[in-house]
Design a protein that fits this description.
Two copies of one chain form a homodimer. Chain A has eight helices and 15 strands. Chain A is of the alpha+beta class and 308 residues long. In chain A, strands 1, 2, 3, 4, 5 and 6 form a six-stranded mixed beta sheet that branches. In chain A, strands 10, 11, 12, 13, 14 and 15 form a six-stranded mixed beta sheet that branches. A three-stranded antiparallel beta sheet of chain A has the order 7-8-9, with no helix packed on it. In chain A, α7 (270-277) packs across α8 (293-302).
Chain lengths: 308, 308
């Protein structure tokens, strides 16, 4: 099955999440003993570096314990066949692990460089979002008391006021406005020189995806779009977004970019987009790498998959 | 433009959010003086009851002040033409407002009973989600200190650790598994007797919308689905979800419902669905009301809009 959402990085997972196991502490405790682990130092997973079979982010329970992994903070990712996969934080930094032949590699590089099989990128994103959420949500937003992890990592409970808190996933629309044979891309000030990408922004309370697309395009470039069609979605663990990729039909062309967010916005021809995807644009302009949903939107656009 | 997402309740808004104004306290302070207000007692908006022009949830600034509305907690919803619209909490309950000819009406009833114009339901949902978020997020999840509202209601800042917190919007998939001419609906234990609706569940960290659909259908009914297509989205302010409606192609039919979430699950023929939408099913079964995205999914299904 060729599914558009499977084309981006972090979108594929070989795990069965078996959510019904999360609330069974005895099962989780038993599973931890023979589990494999993704271990994170801060927001970076550990990789054992070797030429064969290549960089490996999966560690056994003995190694996890030797590295002093926080087993009480381990989150259950799911079953990989019969093997339970967890993610856990470890203390230490580069210097701690260097002597072990282990490197810390940021999650973006893991995807861009293809350091793990595509079906393990989903679990890496899942682990990064969950561990990051726990690290930044140790207190109850309702009453300020310390909270504690529950449900194998999918909830935090407040012993003081009784509130339950759940990991957040922030929906973000990312869209390609299309006007005939041209499409609209922009650069944020932080981008590498020469890179243009799709416009994007958080969905706000009380709006549909389609309204969010129209609002963001208008706010960022002053362009009006009407019809919006869904393309695909992608987990984006920085820290916990769900990118929702769309095409949008432009009904105006004049650009007035918001200088706080946009360094430059431009209409590109289909031919140029093809060149940018392949790093052959005459001016050296280029698009995000294939792991990014923006790349997949552009690739579909060049292939004529845009439908309104 | 007939957009599927505009067919559900809470999906239409006549406001221009003018997000660029939020960070300008002087502009906001000025706007508050001549604004109109949605006023909430707890999670219920106030309505001035009259036969002509009908129940009215919009109050002027003088009335808002007379009701002791929390102006320092007013959130900016957007511009309705030249008029700024805010939402603010007020103290008091039914008995306080009864003498004023004002009723508190829950947000669900506002939509089901069509008490306001469709284009005001979006702002009501926006107000409900934002006020509820502030009411339940007075403390910093990172350090436990008290936070304060910023950006006219779209951020909370922690003066202690410097963290910024943003309103959350939780993506939820809601889906109709389809097998030929049949589709799968279920009842939760809390439903009114006779009502069946679409399966639904929260998107988890690290998964695509499509994977979330497949996981939830499998977890709740044991049915396998493969292809997933997007139908529409709907803001669902209970407290702050974004419903993302999909069709899913079923590749198995045997049902094994999860008793913790599902009281009954059944395959229905297209004919039965038509009867349920119109409250003419011979066994008295029925579907959710037209403001619900589940209703709109079913209506599209009966109309043959299902596409894989």
């Amino acid at each position: 099955m060729d599914e558009r959402s499977q084309r981006s990085g972090y979108s594929r997972s070989r795990l069965d999440r078996t959510a019904n196991r999360r609330g069974d502490p005895a099962w989780i405790a038993q599973a931890l003993r023979s589990a494999r682990f993704l271990l994170f130092s801060g927001d970076r997973p550990l990789f054992r570096i070797s030429d064969n079979p290549g960089p490996d982010p999966l560690f056994d329970a003995g190694t996890a314990q030797r590295f002093d992994a926080g087993m009480d903070r381990a989150v259950f990712l799911g079953l990989d066949g019969d093997t339970a996969l967890f993610a856990a934080p470890v203390p230490g930094d580069e210097t701690t692990f260097d002597a072990e032949g282990i490197k810390l590699i940021d999650v973006r590089s893991v995807a861009v460089q293809g350091l793990v099989a595509p079906a393990l990128l989903g679990p890496v994103a899942q682990a990064k979002s969950l561990l990051d959420w726990h690290a930044r949500h140790g207190y109850c937003a309702r009453c300020g008391a310390s909270t504690r992890m529950a449900d194998a990592g999918y909830r935090r409970d407040c012993p003081s006021c009784g509130a339950s808190h759940f990991p957040r996933t922030d929906p973000v629309v990312i869209m390609l406005p299309v006007d005939g044979a041209d499409c609209l891309l922009a650069r944020a000030p932080r981008f590498q020189p020469g890179m243009y990408s799709a416009l994007a922004g958080f969905v706000e309370p009380g709006e549909t995806l389609e309204d969010a697309v129209r609002r963001e395009v208008k706010e960022e470039t002053a362009v009006d779009v009407d019809r919006v069609t869904y393309h695909s979605s992608q987990p984006w663990p920085f820290p916990s977004s769900l990118m929702i990729g769309c095409f949008a039909r432009a009904v105006s062309r004049d650009l007035d970019p918001d200088p706080r967010e946009i360094a430059d916005a431009r209409w590109f021809s289909r031919t140029e987009i093809g060149e940018m995807l392949n790093h052959r644009h005459p001016d050296g302009l280029f698009a995000p790498p294939s792991m990014a949903i923006a790349h997949q939107l552009l690739k579909s656009y060049v292939a004529g998959e845009t439908i309104f």
